Each structure stands twice: as structure tokens, then as C-alpha cells.
Predict the structure of methylmalonate-semialdehyde dehydrogenase (CoA acylating).
Amino acid sequence: MSIREISMIIDGAAVTSSSGEWRDVVNPATQQVVARVPFCSLDEVDRAIDSARDAFVSWRKVPLAKRMRIMLKLQALVREHTGELAALISEEHGKTLPDAEGEVGRGLEVIEHACSITSLQMGEVAENAASEVDVYTLNQPLGVGAGITAFNFPVMLPCFMFPMAIATGNCFVLKPSEQDPSSTMRLVELALEAGVPAGVLNVVHGGPEVANRLCEHPDIKAVSFIGSTQVGTQIYRRAGETGKRCQAMMGAKNHCVVMPDANRSQSINNLLGSAFGAAGQRCMANSVVVLVGEARQWLEDIVAGAQGMKVGPGTDRQADLGPLVSPQAKARVESLIADGEREGAKLLVDGRNCKVEGYPEGNFVGPTVFSGVTADMTVYREEIFGPVLCVVEVETLDEAIAFINANPNGNGTSIFTSSGWVARRFETHIDVGQVGINVPIPVPVAWFSFTGSRGSKLGDLGPNGKQAIQFWTQTKTVTARWFEPENVSSGINSTISL
């Protein structure tokens, strides 16, 4: 099998980095090296930014209708190549093919929303706001934007960034994760094939040094980040210090409340899928279930469901979850499981020492379930980013709300109930930015904004929806009055009355 050599994209062309530092991209089910990715030099990063800056001069003038047609072509190409993109995701990330196909679908949804740019980028107008004075706003592009994405959604996360950024008239430099870059690169190639002009969309690779350069370069006007809290906090600070607009979607500890009046089978099936799908490697995973009242009696069914889930390589369509992305990730998750045992949580299902026939080197951790978890335990405080479910038991809905609100994160939460009153009380009093009601992962459709809150988000504006338009444009307000020309033979009849 040949090993892919990952290129940069600069000025509309694939460019081989001259960097002396390259990293292996490894299939997490087999440990086979499938690609090599460069850690670009700062000169190469600057070249990509320069290309975007130069392209902005003409791209900002391209009519909205033409940008719309490029987005329409891109969505058609992504739909056509869903299988290819999903296979690349599965090979380098490890998630199952059905899960990877679902990821492409969520990314496609954002591109489809960007196809509505002709109606999304409109300003406001007040005719005759004062005597013969009109006031109106223009939503104009910022210039060059940058995106820095995590490994866990190598297609969806870039789609949260560059389609809307370039549709609004900006140019873009993307730095994908070095752990699984191939599907991101294929996505960008499809964008170029769709008609995105040279320089409008560029790609560089690397680690903190490259990310810092994007945050500090004077020609970058806005930075979008999705990843860990530690890195996101640094990105937000560095971008802010140089006067850039920044959005940072960061870590989480999401809770799923199960009420005793909920549909039992549906609740448990949805809970297991949200906790263990993608091997728990998603910021919207419901990694804590709060069983309320008599719903505590459902714990046995949750355990049985977790024990019945199939672990396998991503190519196995019957598998419920695949491997973790790296041996380091596996070691960290297993260490946190050990911490949970040591601190007194009851280990009901142990996913360590998970063996998958034919894949002895895979980074597999099976579904793991702890009960008796308290807020001071490491397994509760840390975002595990693995297939580990913590079970908390309370007596009342209000106790569940108070428990969740005491957590510093606010990415997402869900409740399963048959009561409209309970659901409304929950959505009103919960201090979390995204709420699901009988929906396990409350990521809204792309024409609504991603609205994580508190410790899970820095910046006022999130990706997608109306907030994305606000983030990637600068509002310019115009106040205008026009006077009748003096001493000009214009043929205008000044005696017209209305």
C-alpha cells in the first residue's frame, strides 16, 4: 500500500512542503502508516496568508450569486463523494463507516446553508429615518480568516468554518489536525473543483507554532477554533491580543437526564449511542447520565446495553464503535478508568483489555460504565474523550438541574421525558447553551447557530446560522442625504411633488 504525502494548498495548487519535520498518519485499527503530513515552516504559512490577502482584492467583489453557484457546485460534489470522504475519515480517525457518513452529512448541511448566501448577507434599511435621510447597513467581509480544527470531525469541523467564511467574501487559511488530514484535504480539493478561485482557500499543516502564527499575523482578521479547552484558551488569548475576532468552541462535560416517565427503550438506546458512538471522541458526547427517581431502576438495562455493543474496525458496518485515534489516547482513557476505580466509583462495565479479532494492534477501548460517580471524582471532572459513561443518581428534576448547572462547562445537555411541563422547566432553568429534548446530541441543524456556553466557549458568536454571518462580516452603517444639484442643467424637474 502506498503512503500518501499530504500537500499544502497555496494559491489554488497542491504544494509540497520543504519542511524537514514530517509526521506519520496512522490507521488506529492497525497502526499501519497511511500518510505523512508536514509541519510547515513559518515562511510557508506566510505564503499561504499572502496568497489569501492578494486574492481578497478581487474575491470580495465577486457577486453573491456567483459565490452561491460555487457553493451549490460544492454541495453536489461533496454529496457525490460522500463514500470516498467517509472512507478516509474511517481510515485515519477510526470511526465506523456509518458514523463517518453521518459526519459528511452534517458537514454537507452547512454547505447547503451557505448556498443561501444571497439572502443571508443582507443589511437593514430605514428610509427617511430623518428628514430626507436614509440609514442602511452593509455586511462586508473582513479580509482573511483562519480556521484551526480538531481531529475528531475532520470533514464537519472545516465545514463549520470555511464555506460560510468564503461565501461572505472572505479568503481563508485552514490548519487541519495533523492526526487525520486526508479527508480534509479531499474536501478542499472538491472546493477548488467547484470553482473556488486560487488563493481564496489555502491549507497549511503543523502544530502550536503554526497555530500561533495564524493568531498573530497582522493580515489575519478572524480566527475560528474547535478543540480542547487548554488550546482554545491560548488561541483566544493570542488572537485577542492582536485585535482579531475569535471564536473558540472548546471542551465539554455533557449530561443526559432520564426521567421515570420517559420511553424506556428509546431513552436507553439513544443514551448508549450518544455516549459510545465515535468511541466517545466528540465534544457533544453525553458522557454523564443523571437518572432521576425511579429511572434509577434502569441502570441494569444500561449496563446490559453497553455490554452488548460491538467494538470493531471502522470498516465493519456492524460495529457500534471503532478504535480511539492513537495509542496515547487509549493510554489516557485507560488511566482515567483506573482513577475512577481508585477514587471509589463502581466499575460496572470495564472496557479495558478490549480485544478485536484480527486487529491485535488496534487502539480499542470498549464501552465502560461507572455508577456512584460524584462531582469531585476525576472521571467526572475531566473530559475523558473516550467510551466512558458516568452514572449519577438523584431524587428530583431540580436536583438534576442543580447538579448540571454546578459543572463549569455548558456545551450541551439532554433530557428524556414524556412531560411537556418537565421539558419546559428543564430548558428554562438549565444553564447550558444547547438543549435536547428526547434528542441525545443537541447539535442543531446548520441554519441555527452552534451555541455552547460558559466554559465550553470563548467569544460571543458561534459557528453556523446567523451568528456565522455576523462573525465573518463587519457591519458598516451608512447615513445618507442627497441634495438637489445647484446650477446644473440636469433636466430634473424640481417641482415634482409626491
User: Anything to note?
Assistant: The mean pLDDT is 96.
